[in-house]
Design brief:
Number of strands: 14
Number of helices: 18
Structural class: alpha+beta
CATH topology: Cytochrome p450
Number of domains: 1
Shape: globular
Organism: Phenylobacterium kunshanense
CATH superfamily: Cytochrome P450
Radius of gyration: 22 Å
GO molecular function, one term: heme binding
Keywords: Heme, Iron, Metal-binding, Monooxygenase, Oxidoreductase
Protein name: Cytochrome P450
Distance between the termini: 29 Å
Family: Belongs to the cytochrome P450 family.
């Protein structure tokens, strides 16, 4: 669905030129008229894509209380209440056992899944790896990967830019983590990550009751096999680094050295492995999905794509990759708007460790608090025309009127994603290189449909025509 609007130009010199445009409304599951209740546990379609189980009232009300089996859920879309859960009273809200079990099966006890002192220790050791200087130092690596991607993209037929984004971000993470020496073939690595997320990222009834041994479905078996293969390869690389006199100076070596300074050999290698899994799986998957969604949206908004390309061409004139992200204010608006419509963290769950009050309602110890950025970012009381692609939501005026806790693409509070700045710089470098090399156009009959498992991804890819410039 599209509506005619008058968009604003991103450059002051052309600000007086009014160009009509069609604001694109990407396809998404229609909210249900009624809350599905227990049906979401037994309905296979809802279990495979929880976005199809959301009721209309979730997008209209600031607070909802739900009872599912033996649990009470408090659904929050009030930014002040969200701030209390994620920041002001964060110590009272831990991650639920079900979420931790699911994440442990995928990635172990790395930073994403650690709690308490273990989490604080890991976060402290990794802080320097994601400092601004470290992010800038990685820019030439990302630019080199972008150039290889541009050389690879076909122009004689439709190309799945979701698959290309996955390959590209895997190249980036392989270079940053392992100096490009992992030895993992792209098809094998991408397939294993896909099987791992599909097999372990879907909520099943057996998990709710702690019956992990009953997960016999083919997808779960493939997920467990993929996890074993990934961990076996990475563990071998880590052991090689530990035994080397002069290992490569990359993220994994520095992480192993940091853990070794505070832990015994076995624990240091285990923690390094768990975090290698975390960053290899989550570190590329979320960025790859965001890139695919951004190109999909830009292909449906030719004017926004033209503005972003004009900015990108100017940003790359002196060829310094580290300086490029700061020169892309309009493309940054596009990226932020993409993550509003398709947040990489599409659901945040917490368990109350003690009694509290949220939105004037009592929260008891053991209750669950659920924040859906997918819903929050499309909430009728927080956004104007929330289902449409509108980068102007993030221009200076839009930003000034925004509550900090109405936009949570990477979470918020103490547990905000540590790799957020790296992901943003990586995305802006890759998008700007693609846009200077190609014009992206839709493929007739193909729309990208969102599916939520651990990540929020296009269910059938993003098919586009890439015209070389």
């Amino acid at each position: 669905m599209e509506r005619e609007v008058q968009p604003k130009m991103p450059h002051a010199a052309a600000a007086e030129i009014a160009l009509p445009s069609l604001r694109f409304r990407p396809p998404a599951p229609e909210p249900l008229e009624r809350d599905p209740g227990l049906r979401m546990l037994f309905d296979r379609r809802m279990a495979r894509n929880p976005l199809t189980a959301l009721p209309r009232e979730a997008f209209e009300r600031p607070y909802r209380r739900m009872r599912v089996l033996h649990l009470t859920y408090h659904g929050l879309n009030d930014p002040d209440a969200i701030k209390r859960v994620l920041l002001d009273n964060a110590a009272n809200y831990g991650r639920p056992w079900l979420v931790r079990r699911m994440m442990r099966r995928m990635i172990g006890e790395g930073l994403l899944n650690a709690e308490g002192e273990a989490w604080r220790g890991q976060r402290r050791l990794m802080a320097s790896a994601f400092a601004p200087a470290a992010v800038a130092a990685a820019a030439p690596l990302v630019a080199g990967v972008a150039d290889r991607s541009c050389a690879r993209i076909r122009t004689d037929a439709a190309v799945d830019m979701a698959a290309e984004a996955t390959r590209t971000t895997l190249d980036v993470i392989d270079g940053a983590l392992f100096s490009g020496a992992s030895g993992m073939a792209f098809d094998d690595a991408a397939g294993d990550v896909r099987d791992l997320l599909a097999g372990e990222g879907e909520l099943r009834l057996g998990q709710v009751f702690g019956l992990e041994a009953l997960d016999w479905a083919p997808a779960q078996r493939r997920g467990r096999a993929a996890r074993r293969r990934l961990r076996t390869r990475m563990a071998a690389m880590i052991r090689t680094r530990a035994a080397a006199d002069s290992p490569p100076d990359d993220f994994i070596t520095r992480l192993l050295q940091a853990f070794s300074a505070e832990h015994g050999r076995e624990d240091a290698q285990r923690l390094t492995l768990d975090n290698a899994m975390t960053f290899f799986v989550a570190g590329h998957e979320t960025t790859a999905n965001g890139l695919a969604w951004a190109l999909y949206l830009l292909s449906r908004d030719p004017q926004a794509q033209a503005w972003a390309r004009e900015e990108a061409v100017a940003a790359w004139r002196d060829g310094d990759p580290a300086a490029v992200p700061e020169r892309l204010p309009y493309l940054k608006m596009v990226w932020d708007e993409t993550l509003r419509l398709y947040p990489p963290v599409h659901r945040i769950d917490r368990e109350a460790l003690d009694d509290d009050v949220l939105c004037g309602e009592p929260v008891r110890k053991g209750d669950m608090v659920t924040i859906w950025p997918w819903v929050l970012h499309r909430h009728r009381t927080l956004w104007d025309r929330p289902d449409e692609f509108n980068p102007e939501n993030f221009d200076p005026e839009g930003r000034a009127g925004m509550h900090r806790y109405q936009y949570l693409p990477f979470g918020a509070g103490p547990r905000i994603c540590i790799g957020m700045a790296f992901a943003q710089a990586e995305a802006l470098i890759l998008l700007s290189r693609w846009l200077t090399a190609f014009a992206f156009e839709p493929v007739a009959g193909h729309d990208a449909w969102p599916r939520a498992d651990i990540a929020l991804r296009p269910a059938t890819g993003v098919q586009l025509m890439a015209r070389r410039l």
